[in-house]
Amino acid sequence: MNYKILLDKRRQLLDGRYPLKLRIYDGLGSTAKSLKIYLHEHEWDEQAQTVLKTCKNHKAYNCKLLHEKTEITKVILFGAEIKKPVKHTVKHSIIEYGKKLSQDFNSTGKTGNAIVYNTAVEMLIRYTCKKRLLFEDIDYTFLKNFENDLLQRQVKVNTISIYLRTIRAIFNKAINEELTENYPFKKFKIKQQPTPSRSLTIDEFKQIKNYKCSGDREFNRDLFLLSFYLIGINFTDLFLLRQRNFINDRIVFERSKTHKIYSVLLHEPALEILAKYKSSSDFLLPVLSNNWKGMQQKNKTQQAIHICNNYLQKISKELNFTKKVSTYYARYSWANFARLKGFSKDLIAEALGHEYGNRVTGIYLDSYGNEIIDEANKAVIQFVLRNTSSEDANIL
Q1: Interhelix angle for 202-209 vs 328-340, to 10°?
Q2: What is the torsion angle, in degrees rounded to the nearest 10, for the CA atoms of residue 9, residue 10, residue 13 and residue 15?
Q3: What pLDDT was estimated at residue 391?
Q4: Which residues pair with 31 in a beta bridge?
Q5: Which of 66, 139, 274, 326 has its CA 20 to 30 A from that of 34?
Q6: pLDDT in the model for residue 361
Q7: Can you point out the beta strands (E) in the chain?
Q8: Residue 111 CB: number of other CB atoms within 10 A?
Q9: Nearest to 374 by CA among 264, 233, 232, 257
Q10: Are 32 and 23 in contact (CB under 8 A)?
Q11: Is the pLDDT confidence value at 387 over 80?
Q12: What average pLDDT does the chain have?
């Protein structure tokens, strides 16, 4: 009888780690025991049978391994009875588990994640016509057929990618909780198409700005302009802005997607729009109600974005654009205009809230606070409004 501790490379998690298992060989076969330790390859020394210092929890893990080695050595030396791990006989449903994860997200205020998980699960129910689908029922062929079914229903490739990545995340969470050992994504590749350009030209931006309109059409056009003036702020974050976020001519907010804090200087065009639509409620803009909470607030936000997109597409059609302009165009256009002005990719990434393309540049930007980004935004606004009219020329 002997044993070995090894990484089970058949069960890679989404973050690249593998479960560490104790495999016992008794001459008649082998038994694997999960140690509930998950490591990257570079954190494990196979030959020395030890967790390396590159893992932050190496001391605790090695202590646990020492205990396991001591117990199995007792068995080998003194013939004590081996307590073989009991295999899970209960098979779990990905539908029920996915719904539970969605509810957990919703209860902690992560309504966006709750909607994504619930939608992915609903797609599985629609495809299988089952409300109970086991993890073990899903294999490579199932995923391929599921993907083909969505394509036949003319669901966009990138939308399918969201569904499949969510299902993959559900599997990874279930494996971490040892609800299943099945992992059908090992050889299945999730397809994704490059996102087409969503940037306006400077002339197109000016046409939208100078477009003569009133009422709801004007309001939604101005929301688009405000998003641009606030460095392409996400519309969800824009609608959630409250009076307390307006601090000394700056908008200070936590981005809902990354939870990172941003501080944007309000230049005159943005101040004019905020003053034009000053809300009587706690919100800066008259879009959401103080009475709406949780999922209701999320649904109302999505509805408002949908309405804004409809008006933007009507405006772009009347202006004879070939592009179906949407709220995303404010963010992408800001990035493109900043690039045309010669700003670095790292500065643009920092301004938009992306990960830094260059880590050193990121540290540099952080150390200088908001001044660099304030000046970049001012330059971009001046760049696109230059010579549009005598009034525009003097706004900054």
Answers
A1: 130
A2: 40
A3: 40
A4: 24
A5: 139
A6: 41
A7: 2-7, 18-25, 30-39, 44-45, 50-51, 246-247, 250-254, 261-265
A8: 21
A9: 264
A10: yes
A11: no
A12: 86
Measured torsion, CA atoms of residues 358, 363, 366, 371, in degrees rounded to the nearest 10: -70
Residue with tokens 């073990």: 136
Q: Which two tokens stand for residue 179?
A: 């609800």
258, 215, 209, 265: which is closest to 236 by C-alpha? 258
Q: Which residue has the tokens 């992408």?
A: 332
CA dist 67 → 58, 61, 63, 75, 179 (Å): 14, 10, 6, 13, 25
Angle at which helices 140-152 and 111-128 pack, to 10 degrees?
Answer: 90
pTM attached to this predicted model: 0.62
Cα separation, 93 vs 174, in Å, equals 10
Q: Give every strand in the sheet of 261-265, ordered side by side.
A: 246-247, 250-254, 261-265
Contact of 43 with 32, CB cutoff 8 Å: no
- Orientation angle between helical segments 345-352 and 359-367, nearest 10 degrees: 60
CA distances from 32 to 26, 83, 179, 193 (A): 12, 11, 16, 41
pLDDT of amino acid 318: 95
Check residue 85 and give its pLDDT: 52
Question: What tokens does 358 get?
Answer: 């260059």
Query: Structure tokens of 163?
Result: 């569904």
Residue with tokens 């004590």: 80
For residue 87, what pLDDT is reported? 52
Structural contact between residues 382 and 396, judged by C-beta atoms closer than 8 angstroms: yes
Give the H or E element holding residue 199: none
Tokens of 249: 């001519």
The pair of structure tokens assigned to 334 is 């800001």
H-type alpha helices, 136-293: 140-152, 157-176, 202-209, 215-229, 235-240, 268-276
Report residue 107 as tokens: 């209860």
Separation of alpha carbons 174 and 151, rounded Å: 27
